[in-house]
Request: fold
Amino acid sequence: SSGINAEWPLRPGDTKCCNTCEEVRVAYRLRGWGLESLAAFEQCKREGLAKALTDMKDEQCNVQGRLRVSKVSGNFHISPGKSFQQSHAHVHDLKLLQQFPLNLTHTINSLSFGEFVPTQTNPLDNHTFVAAELNAMRQYYVQIVPMRYQKINEEIVLSNQYSVTHHHKAIDLNKAARGEQSGLPGMFVTYDISPLMVEVIEHRRSFTHFLTGVCAIVGGVFTVAGIIDSFVYNSYRAFQKKLELGKVN
Reply:
């Protein structure tokens, strides 16, 4: 009923009314109940949320941002469904995927760890994955190598390079709900940090180094020219001798 001063968010044991569709979803999630369809609730019908979900089921997402993480092994992921903590575990509400399966086809325009470094290329930049099955789980295993980059003006940039392997599988939501299959639909990035560090230093060649290179090139040209001249000269001399001896018809 309207006008009730309900405490937000709702907690297990609350018996107050849910005046909005979002409060219905939170109440079901906190109690661990399955939410089959939003269209069954008057609050969601009134707000038109069920129709909105149907209208946007073919829409795509564009995710952009920065994450600050500790310098230890870890992971992050992008998955559908509202996330929450249950029994000290991070879980997602996947009931809506029964009605709207997830197509995980995606393109990673750029994924980097640390500050930008000139001429550096990242393995996952412009990487595209086309999902052959719905509700797929795509896992990227990233090995990060710290890097110390010193520019020509002696400015130092601390960044990272990385290599990556990947794996994917289809998630059966019914088996996952029964605990017969592990994993969630979505994109998961698991990273590990190497104990080694790469150091890259920019430097400009000195004039003497340039002059030495030019002399080497000029010397090489003269050497090759001398070899060619000697070959042509000796060939001509041999031909002249054959003419003098009458051995050439």
